[in-house]
Amino acid sequence: MTDTSTTTAAAAYDDVTSSDSTLRRFLHGLPGVDQVGAEARAASLGTRSIKTSAKEFAIDLAIRMVDLTTLEGADTVGKVTALANKAMRPDPADPSCPQAAAVCVYPDMVATAKQVLSSSGIKVAAVATAFPSGRAAMDIKLADTRDAVEAGADEIDMVIDRGAFLSGRYLQVFEEIQAVKQACGQAHLKVIFETGELQTYDNVRRVSWLAMLAGADFIKTSTGKVQPAATLPVTLVMLEAVRDFRAATGQMVGVKPAGGIRNTKEAIKYLVMVNEVAGSDWLDPDWFRFGASSLLNDLLMQRTKMQTGRYSGPDYFTLD
């Protein structure tokens, strides 16, 4: 974003939500995203090579950033319990292996995850607001959120109404995010955009600013249920948005790419991008997360390879 745009954002921040027309004017006044440029820069950052010591650091950091997730209709108490134990001890044979950042489950499984994780410091995240569609009445979305928080959720991952956003009903989306944020109480709010349905990078930038203005603690690419999910160019646009939002308001907002990030090489590309685009302050689980489960096993395999010089067998780590 240009300096002029950032100044405009700072000046508009206090009254941008005074009306639907004001919000619309602000969001459509944001600079457009150069699609070719964004994709080229993302590809360029993805070619960076890092030294062995930096790779070791990156792998451990990526492990600490993983939100271990199970969001299936067949989830059971046993499965969530096993996942929570894995979050605490990703590699039981190596006590030096860091913990994951969070365990993400449906609201009815929050109490189970919370009981297992106890005082581990690992967060319990719950998807809410009619995940993954976001298609429900507002009172149902708020009840869903409150139930998860009352059960002990530290974080709420909500989904926006993409139909409302794509049809230009920005104030409706804004007010829903505000209401869910209020229902969260002390829990942090991650706002999921489902970027695979938003069609353009301009829309990704607009919805990023909308969510941040409404009070999001994190902005998140995807539910993992729609393809394409997280991509490097989309994440680049979101990282630029949080960087510019901080410049305009002084407030930091986290970013969470979710869905489709399956191996260490891809994860390191994202970390390089975080450092180069948003800055080193975001290289922390408080400000950047990976929504993934299959990623963790590859990180563990690469970590073992760097320590021992050989790969572990495919059945060495549990499958989630």
From TrEMBL:
Entry keyword set: Lyase, Schiff base
EC number: 4.1.2.4
Family, per entry: Belongs to the DeoC/FbaB aldolase family. DeoC type 2 subfamily.
Name of protein: Deoxyribose-phosphate aldolase
Signal peptide: none
The gene coding this protein: deoC
Main enzyme class: lyase
InterPro entries listed in its UniProt record: Aldolase_TIM, DeoC, DeoC/FbaB/LacD_aldolase
Pathway noted in the entry: Carbohydrate degradation; 2-deoxy-D-ribose 1-phosphate degradation; D-glyceraldehyde 3-phosphate and acetaldehyde from 2-deoxy-alpha-D-ribose 1-phosphate: step 2/2
Catalytic activity: 2-deoxy-D-ribose 5-phosphate = D-glyceraldehyde 3-phosphate + acetaldehyde
Lyase as UniProt keyword: yes
